[in-house]
């Protein structure tokens, strides 16, 4: 259907009906069909197609070449892969789109009529619109639109009065942040920046350390330290913690080893438990090192696609995952609670419903129906027809889960063909590469 649409578009642009467009007409038409295309890239692509042509033939683009050019430049393989993987074909029905938005984009409660409006808005082919279908070009335009922007449109609204002088606003600041002690002759260190940025968490860690320091000597031994860190974050690996402590103790005198001070404990825990990628998300999203309950609600809706969650439900999540009592009281989620939440089953990339085994899997394998393919490599006749790796791609993209590979020794390595017949042979390497590329695209 896409090719038919491009035929129609070309014919409409071919004003003299000679079946040719010049270079700039071709570029203008492609830009009209997809304004995201780069003119420089289009010119480069046309030059590649015209390489080797006679001088008088250059600059004249036929319908066939136009369709090939547009298909190669406008089709993003990653988006085409999503389309085919999700639908098993090169277009989406309105029902497919509804399922995709709910299952992949997290947009819940969208009606068929609203999905149809999206197809009408983004699908350039009139025939596809009439058939209530979204082809690759419309699907690409939709995914690259503001409606699918990774940044929620709500975050583009300025919610404060930003017209006042900077001195009218309260900003939590730090003077000479790099200094750790004396202002005139004390040491400078990047640690000062971490200390200032993580000040709220530091006070929480200090209280946790003091509670674990039973003899109030300001020291914990190695195993007390590891046990406390595991209590704060059970995802931490004991071997990694021991390795980190060894690095900190390297160069110490023998009698000083195995005694961890409050300052070292906080540094150790911060370095091992704080994932930079998650901290970056937190700061990028909130502009500070904690989330309020309203921030969490917006994050879940805008980034995670969880719609309709109330403030009370978000507060329950903070209560469940935030380890700091003070932060829970202030209805805030610090980096440790946010990390635990993102790594929990509630944020698992795989829905917990998919972990349920809904069939009886205790029977022998022969008791189950499995979509299989016999002599998958044959395209036509069983006795003298051609063999091709294409047969595997075709079967797998139709949902087949069991394929047949008849392997024999060949002159240049293993080959696949219908043994003791006149069928042609295909290299086993080509077959395996095709299976690898297509095995899990559809199923």
UniProtKB/TrEMBL annotation:
- Enzyme class comes to hydrolase
Keywords noted in UniProt:
Cytoplasm, Disulfide bond, Hydrolase, Lipid degradation, Lipid metabolism, Lyase, Magnesium, Metal-binding, Transducer
GO BP annotation list: gamma-aminobutyric acid signaling pathway; lipid catabolic process; phosphatidylinositol metabolic process; phosphatidylinositol-mediated signaling; regulation of synaptic transmission, GABAergic; release of sequestered calcium ion into cytosol
Per the record, what are the reactions this protein catalyses?
A: a 1,2-diacyl-sn-glycero-3-phospho-(1D-myo-inositol-4,5-bisphosphate) + H2O = 1D-myo-inositol 1,4,5-trisphosphate + a 1,2-diacyl-sn-glycerol + H(+); an N-(acyl)-sphingosylphosphoethanolamine = an N-(acyl)-sphingosyl-1,3-cyclic phosphate + ethanolamine
Annotated localization: Cytoplasm
Which InterPro entries does this UniProt record tie to the protein?
Answer: EF-hand-dom_pair, EF_hand_dom, PI-PLC_fam, PLC-like_Pdiesterase_TIM-brl, PLC_EF-hand-like, PLipase_C_PInositol-sp_X_dom
Instruction: List its EC numbers.
Output: 3.1.4.11
A GO molecular function annotation here is: lyase activity
Q: What is this protein called?
A: Phosphoinositide phospholipase C
